[in-house]
Structures are given as structure tokens and as C-alpha cells.
Amino acid sequence: MSQKGLSIDSQHASTNSLSVEKCRQEIQPKFFDMIPSVKASPCCKEPEPNYVGDRIKKTVGFPALTACCKPLRYKDFIISYDTKNRIPNWVYEHLQYAKFFKDDPCDKRINVCPYNDDAAALGIEKPKFHPDCRIHGYHRADVRDYCDTDYELGLMADPQNYQFDCEACAETQVMTNVVPIVPGFSCGPWFDLQCYIREKLVRENKGVYVCSGPLFLPCSDDGKTVMKFDVLGEGEVSVPTHFFKVIIIESHDGNLELESYMMPNVTPEDGAETNLDDYLTPLCQIEHASGLIFFPEKKVCFTSNNKRRGARLHNL
User: Which domains, and CATH codes, for the chain?
Assistant: First the structure.
């Protein structure tokens, strides 16, 4: 076939395709106009949720804890706050040797703890207790709640743990770190336990994780098992019956060891010798009383470095 013949065929093909496209443009709108339109009926709306929880959430929402349902972060410790009882659920600290002791003669840090014996001579005043504004006003405890009561303001995160850090030391005075204690409680076995952590465990290990908190244990009354505790002030601050410390020791070789203690919120006897062994408590008992699971993501076996009590204590 000649080149001229090819050119003519190409022209015919182009003309035919244009004609088809033109017909399609003219016919298609008319064709769709002939199809009756159908309006969406009410039954095509999104169906209402069947599950009661979904309906409640969509219409009114669920009651929620305040913003403090998440742990509250401070410089050197973290607190889970109990908005119902106006005290912490727990306070977690990570204690290390460098925070407590000065081995370098060039270390010019000064002990700024207001509870230190030399604080007055150095002109260090005790910081005032203050609220945490992240807590809703309904759920805050106030210093005035403790006025004219038989209880003192106790601190879960101890200022003595932050002797060289003015900011962290002052943060221990926040009301979310405060619990009602009986007079003398902080000078008895609880004080001995804190000294044991600082002077022995921190000195001899890479680091020590300390979780402290209150407990409410039932008692017997007229043959019945009841829950009894005092409530203070207009803020209705609950007074714990006991306190716990769960201590995780990280040794220099990376092993984790556990010691757990529980103590009643009572005034210690005068002149009584303290034996910390008497307060060692299986972790499962503390978890049962507190409603907490301390290591939900760590399925490991901790051992105790307290040789007086022995070997493997807590299988988690």
C-alpha cells in the first residue's frame, strides 16, 4: 500500500473517532436524564450504636478522673495522686550515689536541705508547703486540713534525698507528696529504713529505685472486719493505716534485687530498738492491699540482697 493510501486511512480513522466521541457527549447526558433520581431514605442513615457503652460515650460521655490521673512529673521523682483520698497512691524515686556523696574535693555543692542540722546556721529556711495547680481544686489537700488534728505532715519523697539540689528539695514540699502521719512516725522505723537506703543500698550499688506509698488495711471490730481510718479537715484527707516501701536495687553488674517493707502508721515506743527484718513483707501482700501491680511489664524474678531473709522471694 502506498504512503498516500496510509494517509487517507489515518484521516478516516481520526474522523471516525471524533464522530464517536461527539455522539457519546450528546447521547450520554440525555441517557442519564432519562434515569429517575432516587433520594436517600432515612433508613440509609448511619445506624445508632448497639452497644450501651458506645451510646453513652456518643451522647453524654463517661465520667473521668481529673488531669492528674496520669503520674505527675517533678524534677527528681514522680507521683501518682489519689484524688479521692487527697494523698499520693505512690511516689517513685531513683537514688544514685552522686546525688548524696561528694568524693571530688573540687565539688563545691552545698547541702541545702532545710531539715539538716546546719540549715539554720547557713540561713536556709524551710520551704512552705504548696499545692500543685495541676490538681483540680475539688481534690486538693491543704495545710489547713492538718490544723487542730492529731496528725503531722509526712513526706513520701524525703528532702534528705536531695541535699544538694535546691529545686528538687523544695519540690518535696508539694502537697501531692504529703500524707498524714502520727507524731513520731518519721523518727522511728521509717526513718531507720530511709537511712538504710541512703547509707547502705545507695553506697553499695549502681542505683536504687524506691516506691513509697500509703495503705489502708482492715481491722477487727466487734467480730467484724471493717475499714476504719480518720479523715482530716474540709478537704477530707484520709489517714492511712500503714505505709509501704518497695525497693529495687540495681547492682553494679546489672542485676535487679528486691526488698519490700510495710509499717503501721503508729507512734514508735520510746527506747525500742528497730529491727527492719520485722517489717519485711512479701510483695504480693502489698499489691493486694494497695490494688497495685508493681511490675506488670517486667516478667522477671527478683532476688533479695537482704541475706538475713534469704534467697528468691518474689516470682512475678
Answer: 3-59 (no CATH), 70-315 (3.40.570.10)
